[in-house]
């Protein structure tokens, strides 16, 4: 049984034409329900993250000012999401969803969060639609509370995981790896433990070769006991915020090769959906479902 983690707060009343497709989380859950992959027996709902979890990687004053709607106009602009009670709620629940997914993955080998991957969130500022860094929070929490010694964050979103890299820069137990389009946002990059900057217009074959080679190298180097896999679909050729030329078949091959490799090594993996910005939001939800479909297929085969 593949555990899937989601929460109704992930999609809330939000400007429908905003670049950020807030409805994609509910559409993804509905799509997976329709496909028989999300059922009552494998659905897990997180509650809000404790403040102490967020404070492991974020400034307490930054957190409090967000919750109380005391960000400056400049801070809101950098986040690029309008403040609302709904945004606060989903921002508090979603990191707990990634934590829960990771804990489930330690038991079942694979688990999928139908959200997550807010990798641009830094210690004391939001950026690029990201308020709190679920990947860094989860890595820190599991290292400290589950007695893990080595966690790998394998970030295949098309944008660099700059917040994750910065927040975890002084945490040797967490290895950050980002494979991203070099000429894309964020234009000032952080230093991950492993960065692979891809050229614009990279196609399936070249992309998949880089992903496979990089994954093997970082797993051999860090020997993680848990992997947090950001399966962003903004690498897709027609994504308005991506710069690569990866097809949907290429995304499926990527997710399959990552999950099969880690399963072959016996390393638990928690997946998050990461970025994806298609104006066709049903198509976007179906694209985000690919990693779940591949995880389910792999679990059923073993
Ligand atoms: Zn992205």
Write a short abstract of this structure:
This protein has ten helices and eight strands. It is α/β, with parallel strands linked by helices and 302 residues long. Strand 7, helix 9 (248-264) and strand 8 form a beta-alpha-beta unit.
Write the layout of secondary structure elements.
Layout: E1 4-5, H1 24-34, E2 43-44, H2 51-54, H3 60-67, H4 73-79, H5 85-108, E3 110-113, H6 134-145, E4 151-155, H7 162-167, E5 174-181, E6 194-198, H8 204-222, E7 226-230, H9 248-264, E8 269-272, H10 281-301
Parallel strand pairs: 1-2, 1-3, 3-8, 4-5, 4-7, 5-6, 7-8
Helix pairs in contact: 1-10, 5-6, 8-9, 9-10
The site of zinc ion (ZN) has 6 residues, from loops.
Write out key terms for the chains shown.
single chain, 302 residues, alpha/beta, Arginase, Chain A, eight-stranded parallel beta sheet, 10 helices, 43% helix, binds zinc ion
Computed structural class: alpha/beta
For the record, what is the CATH homologous superfamily label?
Answer: Histone deacetylase domain
Distance between the termini: 11 Å
User: How many H/I helices?
Assistant: 10
Helix content: 40-55%
Q: How many domains comprise the coordinates?
A: 1
Q: Report the top-level CATH class.
A: Alpha Beta
Counting DSSP E segments of at least 2 residues, the number of strands comes to: 8
Q: What spatial form do the alpha-carbon principal axes imply?
A: globular
Major beta-sheet overview: 8 strands, parallel
Mean pLDDT: 97
Q: Ions, cofactors, ligands: which are bound?
A: zinc ion
Uncertain regions: pLDDT < 50 for 5+ in a row?
A: none
């Amino acid at each position: 049984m593949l555990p899937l983690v989601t929460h109704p707060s992930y999609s809330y009343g939000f400007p429908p034409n905003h670049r950020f497709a807030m409805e994609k989380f509910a559409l993804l859950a509905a799509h997976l329900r329709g496909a028989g992959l999300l059922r009552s027996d494998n659905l897990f709902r997180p509650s809000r993250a404790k403040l102490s979890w967020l404070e492991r990687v974020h400034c307490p004053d930054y957190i409090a000012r967000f919750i109380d709607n005391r960000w400056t106009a400049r801070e809101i602009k950098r986040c690029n999401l309008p403040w609302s009670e709904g945004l606060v709620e989903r921002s508090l629940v979603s990191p707990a969803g990634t934590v829960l997914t990771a804990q489930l993955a330690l038991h079942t080998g694979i688990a999928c969060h139908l959200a997550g991957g807010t990798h641009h969130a830094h210690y004391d500022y939001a950026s690029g639609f990201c308020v709190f860094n679920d990947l860094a929070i989860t890595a820190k929490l599991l290292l400290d509370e589950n007695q893990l010694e080595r966690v790998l964050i394998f970030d295949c979103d098309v944008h660099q995981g700059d917040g994750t890299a910065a927040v975890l820069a002084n945490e040797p137990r967490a290895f950050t790896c980002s494979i991203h389009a070099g000429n894309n946002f964020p234009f000032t990059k952080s230093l991950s433990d492993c960065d692979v900057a891809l050229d614009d217009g990279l196609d399936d074959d070249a992309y998949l070769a880089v992903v496979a080679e990089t994954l093997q190298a970082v797993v051999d180097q860090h020997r993680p006991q848990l992997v947090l896999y950001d399966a962003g679909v903004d690498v897709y050729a027609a994504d308005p915020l991506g710069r690569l030329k990866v097809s949907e078949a290429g995304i499926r091959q990527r997710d399959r090769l990552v999950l099969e490799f880690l399963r072959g090594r016996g390393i638990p993996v928690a997946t998050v959906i990461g970025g994806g910005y298609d104006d066709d939001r049903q198509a976007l939800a179906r694209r985000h479902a690919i990693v779940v479909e591949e995880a389910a297929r792999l679990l059923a085969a073993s």
